[in-house]
Amino acid sequence: MERMTRLLVLEDDAGLRASLRMVLEDEGYQVLEAEDAERGLEIVADPEGVDLMLVDLMLRGMDGFSFIQRARPQTEAPIVVVSARDGVEDIVAALESGADDYVTKPFLVDEVKARLKALLRRPSMSGAPQREADVFVLDSHDGPLVFDRGAAALTRDGVEIHLTNTEFRLLSALVDHVGLVLSRSSLLEHVWERGFFGDERIVDVHVRRLRKKLEVDPSSPAILVTVRGLGYRLDRR
Fold first, then answer.
1. How confident is the model at residue 34, as a pLDDT?
2. β-bridge mates for residue 181, sequence order
3. What is the reported pLDDT for 120?
4. 3-state secondary structure labels for all residues of the chain
5. Cα–Cα distance between 71 and 45 in angstroms, integer?
6. What gap in Å lies between CA 156 and CA 138, rounded to an integer?
7. How far is Cα 40 from Cα 33, in angstroms, rounded to an integer?
8. d(CA 92, CA 96)
């Protein structure tokens, strides 16, 4: 029997949690509920793990930001934040913590379902397709920075630099268009696919995170550069 997709719903509103469970079980998910971050972390640590997570930010006790920061080292499962907090600083903080997507309350259930499906469609690093040219030297000036797409590994001077699934897909898209400018909307289509309905600023946040891992001096980027008014370009050095 095919294993059901395990989806954690971390939400302290019992009514909303129950509604999401009903809807998502109808979509074929195995829904695991948690009303606080501590229980959520127990579910993430379970040997069966989780495949997706819906996480509220405003929880009793440990908040959603802290949950994401503690859960992310344990799993690469995509995390969608669902929160009434719609400020730019909250969105940026959630994405910087390790979330993949952000939905503000009140939300349309169909939107949440579409985003979850889009996240599941993305290839994971473990399932990265083999290409004829899988190894790319991105920097030969400040110690070799090598992106091995087949092995889903980024290394500098032989030391591996951890990439999240989203960072891996973002870097892959940039490598496929090395030397060319990619707009935010184009990166959304390549990395987040057509199921993403949200703010293009999500691209900026993930570019900033990736830049910290690629650049010797992220404040003066030489590899992942911003082309003002147009988008981003990957240059080899």
1. 94
2. 233
3. 76
4. CCCCCEEEEECCCHHHHHHHHHHHHHCCCEEEEECCHHHHHHHHHCCCCCCEEEECCCCCCCCHHHHHHHHHHHCCCCEEEEECCCCHHHHHHHHHHCCCEEEECCCCHHHHHHHHHHHHHCCCHHHCCCCCCCEEEEECCCCCEEEECCCCEEEECCEEECCCHHHHHHHHHHHHCCCCEECHHHHHHHHHCCCCCCCCHHHHHHHHHHHHHHCCCCCCCCCEEEECCCEEEECCC
5. 8
6. 10
7. 8
8. 6
- Take residue 185 and report the two structure tokens written for it: 């909307």
Q: Which CATH class is domain 6-121?
A: alpha beta
| Residue whose C-alpha is closest to residue 75's, from 103, 111, 100 | 100
Contacts 24+ apart (CB under 8 A), 216-220: 216/139, 216/142
- All CATH 1.10.10.10 domain ranges in the chain, comma separated: 129-234
Beta bridge partners of 159: 156
- CATH 3.40.50.2300 region(s) of the chain? 6-121
Label residue 199 by pLDDT band (50, 70, 90): low
Distance of CA 145 to the CA centre of its chain: 22
Q: Determine the Cα–Cα distance for residues 165 and 181; give it in Å rounded to an integer.
A: 22
Task: Give me the architecture of the 129-234 domain, per CATH.
Answer: Orthogonal Bundle (1.10)
- Residues near 131 by Cβ (< 8 Å), separated by ≥ 6? 149, 150
- Considering 3-17, 85-99, 121-135, the range whose residues carry the highest mean pLDDT is 3-17
Which residue's structure tokens are 């908040």?
Answer: 63
pTM of the model: 0.66
